[in-house]
Design a protein that fits this description.
332 residues, 8 helices, 30% strand, alpha/beta, four-stranded parallel sheet
């Protein structure tokens, strides 16, 4: 079974972090987003991976080849970022003729019963109820769970069930056929993109039966606030936080946290809900509810609700004060 993982996006909502770091490689609860996806797919029997890369794609390829050297991986470049449907179409030569594929977008973390989804005799779309469906691809379906309509960012939604970026597709060649017609016919959608949503709708119009599967949790890690929330939720779960940590000099660790290898932490307070990358150097600092990258250097700072990239140095402001009576100073 093959999986197609589109990871070509620029992650503009997470800039400036994503100017140099592709979003799928941002760490959450101790490992990159892409690792959650790959490991979940391995558990359900996927052995062949097709990555659709673009922006900073060489970093994703380098990471995959180093972290998972035994995987059968193919990298296809999406030269122009023209939407999710265009990304799948870009990988057409790698998936044409397949009996079944998985599509899993590379910037999401999903908690679902994937094994149950794989047992479905029909193509399946992962969905989750949302408060404001106007920002998502929305699925309408009947009591039997069969999809009747798929709409990209509807102005007046008739459903609040959003697609979460996980799809099991059995009619692979039909999907490629409708995407090919859409792109070659220049039937571009809103925002000058070819969304996968339109291709799925065309499939249903041509007789394909698609069903839905509700996922337990869905974290679309495209914004800082959601990224930090996801980090905290996962650290609270069993198996994600660091359990056996060395003793750090004159420092306090408030669990749950994930602290990488070879970190030097002195005179500091770390946690709760903080992820610290490998080889970080932290001195006289407080870090809580934050994600700190590899080789970061922090000294005399207080960080909360923060995302700090790799190889970053932050030094706090120092003061020498001579203060008289009845004085109030606020450095916030």
């Amino acid at each position: 079974m093959k999986a197609v993982i589109p990871v070509a996006g620029a992650g503009t909502n997470l800039r400036p972090l994503t100017y140099t770091q592709p979003k799928p490689l941002i760490p959450v609860a101790g490992k990159p987003i892409i690792s959650f996806i790959v490991e979940q797919l391995l558990e359900i029997g996927v052995r062949d991976f097709v990555f659709v890369i673009g922006y900073l794609g060489e970093k994703i390829q380098k990471f995959m080849e180093k972290a998972y050297p035994d995987l059968n991986t193919t990298f296809v470049t999406q030269e122009n970022r023209l939407g999710s449907g265009h990304a799948i179409w870009t990988a057409r030569e790698e998936i044409r003729g397949e009996d079944e594929i998985i599509i899993f977008f590379g910037d999401t973390i999903i908690d679902a019963d994937f094994k149950s989804i794989m047992k479905s005799p029909l193509s399946c779309l992962g969905v989750k109820r949302v408060d404001d469906p106007r920002q998502f691809g929305v699925v309408e379906y009947g009591k039997d769970g069969i999809v009747t309509k798929v709409v990209e960012k509807p102005k007046i939604p008739k459903s609040n069930m959003a697609m979460v970026g996980f799809y099991k597709i059995l009619e692979v060649d039909l999907l490629l056929e409708v995407l090919d017609e859409q792109i070659k016919g220049d039937n571009i959608g809103e925002g000058d993109e070819y969304p996968l949503t339109d291709g799925l709708m065309k499939m249903t119009e041509r007789g394909a039966k698609l069903t839905v599967s509700k996922v337990n949790n869905w974290f679309d890690c495209g914004k800082k606030e959601i990224l930090l929330k996801t980090n905290a939720i996962l650290l609270d779960k069993e198996g994600y936080a660091s359990s056996h940590l060395p003793t750090y000099d004159n420092s306090i660790v408030i669990h749950p946290v994930s602290i990488g290898k070879n970190c030097k932490i002195t005179n500091s307070i770390i946690g709760p809900h903080s992820t610290i990358g490998d080889n970080a150097v932290i001195d006289s600092t407080i870090v809580r509810n934050s994600i700190i990258g590899n080789y970061a250097s922090l000294k005399e700072v207080v960080l909360q609700n923060s995302v700090v990239g790799n190889d970053t140095a932050i030094t706090g402001m120092r003061q020498s004060l001579n203060i008289g009576d009845n004085t109030e100073i606020d450095f916030s």
